[in-house]
Design a protein that fits this description.
46% strand, SH3 type barrels, 68 residues, 5 strands, 6% helix, globular, mainly beta, five-stranded antiparallel β-sheet
Length: 68
């Protein structure tokens, strides 16, 4: 089986922010990338864990690099 190379701008361990459009919360949430899924239908999905232990995941369009 051929190994697929990720086109994601993120890698596991990166600190990123996730959009309120995905979390349904008021503000952007900062967390650490814990997994990058290769979804053949929608592309890379990013999973993060925040400092409260919550896990959020979605397509990479909902994430941006953290400024802190």
């Amino acid at each position: 089986m051929k190994k697929e190379i990720s086109k994601s701008p993120f890698k596991v361990g990166d600190i990123v922010e996730v959009s309120p459009d995905l979390t349904m919360l008021k503000d952007w949430i900062t967390g650490t990338v814990i997994k990058i899924f290769k979804n053949p239908f929608i592309g890379d999905e990013i999973a993060i864990k925040d400092n409260q232990g919550r896990i959020f995941f979605g397509v990479k369009d909902y994430f941006k690099t953290s400024k802190s």
